[in-house]
Amino acid sequence: MSGVILITGATSGIGRAAARRFAGAGWKVIATGRRQERLDALVAELGADQVHAAPFDMRDEAAIDAALDTLPEGFRDIDVLINNAGLALGTATAQEADLAQWRQMIDTNITGLVTLTHRLLPRLIARKGAILNISSVAATYPYKGGNAYGGTKAFVRQFSLGLRADLHGTGVRVTSIEPGMAETEFTLVRTGGDQAASDALYGGAAPMTGEDIAETLFWVATLPPHLNMNALELMPVSQSFAGFQVARD
Ligand code: NDP
Ligand code: 8X3
């Protein structure tokens, strides 16, 4: 099985690994993200027949529309949308957090995601396609400093389940993918470029990789068409759950 897939955030991490995984299996990949040079590198690596670079910022509705309106022949009938682009910014508590960072997470992880999804729904319904949304374990398990980021990912999970209900009878499949710790540029972005912090988090922890998540996405997207994975939570073996905190006088 193959088709046309649009993957947001294909310049790095999970999205780039997914672009490679699907293109390698013969899918035509529309790769998006802000960093044009990384998208160009992906096209050079995987071939222009296989990958179309569509650089846009998820927060720019007009840029999304322009990119969708100018898709080349062979890339227009989109079968699968992977809503992967997203970010966490900062780990400060709510009372210390930067409101601009909260807004950027909401604008990207929520508003951008719903905008693109809304635009593509007619095509996905016509193709009886699939939507794979990248949520997070942060949607379910709150942690100190996760505040707005966790909130955006809880939205993504619940939006996915709501889409399932709305798309009842259309044949469109919807999945909320909820990973735990995966080593990508995620922590570098979250910390404003602190490589040491990123290395410290992942060091010795055998975290998941972008390729691990890409393989999961490929598996979900290529399940028989009568099967819908509603939600899928995955973690590295090294990561598990901790208890509640108690403040004492
Ligand atoms: P990376 O930082 O490696 O990749 C993030 C991707 O999102 C990049 O391609 C980036 O592209 C894109 N992106 C960010 N902001 C925008 C924007 N405004 N417009 C367009 N693209 C944007 O991190 P991951 O691969 O780890 O993250 C992918 C998804 O996985 C995110 O939604 C993240 O929340 C989620 N996730 C990650 C986990 C982890 O542990 N790594 C765990 C659970 C969920 P560019 O900068 O070029 O625009
Ligand atoms: C990324 C996983 O635990 O850093 O969504 O929030 S976590």
TrEMBL record:
Keyword Acyltransferase annotated: no
A Pfam family reported for this protein in Swiss-Prot or TrEMBL: adh_short
Keywords in alphabetical order: Oxidoreductase
One GO molecular-function entry: oxidoreductase activity, acting on the CH-OH group of donors, NAD or NADP as acceptor
UniProt cross-references to PANTHER family, sorted A to Z: ALCOHOL DEHYDROGENASE
Family: Belongs to the short-chain dehydrogenases/reductases (SDR) family.
Official protein name in the record: NAD(P)-dependent oxidoreductase
Protein's organism: Brevundimonas naejangsanensis
